[in-house]
Amino acid sequence: MFRFRRISIVAVYCSATLVLLCGAAFAEIIQITTNVAADNRPAWSPVGTEIAFKSDRSGNPDIWVIPSVGGVAYQITIDPAADTEPAWSPDGTQIAFASDRAGSFDIWAVSATGGAPTQVTSGSSIDAKPSWSPDGRKIAFASSCGSGNDIWVVLSSGGVPEQLTSMGGTYPTWSPDGSQIAFAGPSGDIWIIPSNGGTPVQLTSDPADDARPSWSPLGNWIAFKSERSGNSDIWVIPATGGTAIQVTIDPSYDTRPTWAPDGMQLAFTSGRSGNSDIWATESVTGVQGGVVPTSIVELMQNSPNPFNPSTKLLFTMHKSGTVRIEFFNSAGRLVDASDLGHLASGPQEFTWRGRGGDGRSLPSGSYFYSVLSGGERQSRKMLLLK
Question: What is this structure's pTM?
Answer without folding.
Answer: 0.73
